[in-house]
């Protein structure tokens, strides 16, 4: 189904937003650049006039939002008003019954209409995640297909994948042909979803009709605006006057979600009705033409506090589709001096930078944010139109330079470069004419920077504040680095050739950030690192050759981020390395810290106690890696962290038991225990009331006790439990009693994967689709529901149920197909036998229901957290259903579906009357399908053989088109003579006459 809107709405939108045809679009960059230049000249004139009057500059207090309010803000691109689109595209993604091996679908629409947001919502849907073996998201934008080709080349063949190609703006036939041949390596059912502004691309690349995304309807627009503009409690009550003003505002936003979100974010800080009216009048002054959306973004920029404006303008250095790392960005802001301390407030500059970022995110200047497992924002992107506004207001002070150097002007202070720019002598001679403060690399491709070029770069820009040379093929950092007296940010990450840094680097007294991540051959840090007195961040993750820390680390009193602290495995560095005592005074460390102990520690108790981890209240995550020594038990006991810790990982621990402090971590959310070979028991976890995620792996001799079961069962927030290679913990089945806990998964023995070529069953395709429609699997919020498939014996009920089950099972957490329930309950083991099979299927565990008090009801608490697909085949009594899924269907989680096959549809009448069940009656096959089925079984072909045509049709008619009868008789007649066929025909007629 293709979704369409009324023509009048389309005509109105075409007046406001341009066609995707580039020939019709004016040069937005030139037009806005001229406007920005005019604005800056006016501001400079005002500033000069102010100086003449003796006015002094005053720094604005940018306490834009309280920190706790910003951190509680959930960046949620909720899809409002797109339910029909979402449902239709979801059906496309989950449909395995398609003629194409690989299917393509495009979402097309104007800038800001919500294409990416809709695609992201579908991409992150739980059913979609379960349906595909692999999911890939690639933003193409104006770039070529190299990144996309690299992602596709990395895919394993014969996987069923979902590939989202976001923001595709052009199609090179040669590149697309090459890429398409690579894409064909996926398994049948793989899908490719494309978002584009270009209708031609949408039409030519889709194997199904594309979905043109239209403007939001008025009511959906109002809902979105109020959601963005009001706090939760105000949104619920909805001031009617504000709603009326909001209605006028959204009419001027023309149903464009990006515009509505940005205006709503501006209104969030406007508390009175008068302020809302003022903004409405301001928007109404804008011309009704295609540039209005950009002007609305510009208006939102105008309402930013001054400090946020320069932080936002700085983002123009990144390409439009760049994934911006949050910590890297805020560190650069700090290096440039953009972060202003607030008077009379004791707050780290990192916290203020965090608030700046979160406020820009809340105001929708950033989007597509990613989060870590603790919910912290890690990265974001900028919408292409928002990025255009950043470039406009950044002006000539910021430049993204390439091989042509065409964007460099005399006032340029901040520059980014990509891998197409060769920083050769010729280019450096041109660049050194500009007093640059910033040089950062914005490319994911490796570059090769020779020593001479690097030396020339350093000598050319003595006033640099930030220098980013990550992944630049650097083998040796020249000692002249110390000439950069103003340098505050230095990124040398991913330069695998660097073995050590020159001692002169410690003369960079202003340096705040030093990033050496993934310098895998780095063997030591500067011996006199203590001289970096202003260092706030030292990042050395994945520096695998680094074996010790230098003495004096403890003197870095401003240090806030230290990713790793490493202790050597022997005494070969007695005069050079720093022990755990170096951590003693570093009590302002924040974020994550990894401590790696590579050997025995002398005087282990006082040494480990000196680390003073208990006082490091801003640490969020701690990873402790041991060498499996006997002294580990004392060491871990003394390395007790702060009660504020949220994530703890212990790896390679050599002790026999865990310390008592592990039971007293009230804010701990994640706990991971790996490779603790000597531990005989689990730690006491009874007080970990915030624990959500528990992983236990490679504890070969650890056993559980009744106390462990009681403790874990009482944890209110535990939702994920993963256990592997722990043979004595496999019988921990009662833990499924946990409220909200997904059942524990233990790896089973590897099984051989068999690839079957199953021929399609004749005559059931339409019936399967009808049943799937009744199931409404796309609606996760609906409580459990039954669909009953009823009809006469042999009519094909079980065949239909099995086909539906095979097609949909990947969309559910767990599945169970319980065949022949009527016969099983009478002749095998009664209803308890079936209940045991159900439990084993749903929980993927072996267990006997008879062993648990209360029987199957014992498991209801965990069942309610799981979305299941269950087939109850051949049900003969209502009690069978009540005993397996509950008389109110309240045993299983939202979105669960139960398929029941039965002859007597009346058995489900109670459920139907309560609105809990829908019925599907299977009638006899039509004549053509029935004859096709008969020919397949009787002749081995779907087509009749001359001489057998008429008698075959008479036999099929005599079967009353019942599939089972047709299959049995057809199979019997296969290979028989025409005389045998006539005898069977006569026998069937005789039986019908006698019945």
Kindly list the characteristics that best describe this protein:
about 1000 residues, alpha/beta, Arc Repressor Mutant, subunit A, eight-stranded parallel beta sheet, about 35% helix, disordered N terminus
> Per CATH, which architecture of the domain at 765-921?
3-Layer(aba) Sandwich
Distance between the terminal alpha carbons, to the nearest Å? 49 Å
Round the Cα radius of gyration to an integer and report it: 34 Å
DSSP strand count: 28
- Spans of at least 5 consecutive residues with low confidence: 1-33, 42-76, 733-760
CATH topology of the domain at 765-921: Rossmann fold
Structure notes:
This protein is an alpha/beta fold and 995 residues long. Among the domains are: 83-212, Rossmann fold (3-Layer(aba) Sandwich); 230-302, no CATH class; 307-393, Orthogonal Bundle (Arc Repressor Mutant, subunit A); 402-546, Ribonuclease Inhibitor (Leucine-rich repeat, LRR (right-handed beta-alpha superhelix), Alpha-Beta Horseshoe); 765-921, Rossmann fold (3-Layer(aba) Sandwich); 928-994, Helicase, Ruva Protein, domain 3. 36% of the residues lie in helices and 14% in strands. It has an 8-stranded parallel beta sheet, with helices on one face. Strands 17-18-19-20-21-22-23 form a 7-stranded parallel beta sheet, with no helix packed on it. Mean pLDDT is 79; it is low at 1-33, 42-76 and 733-760. One of its GO terms (biological process) is defense response.
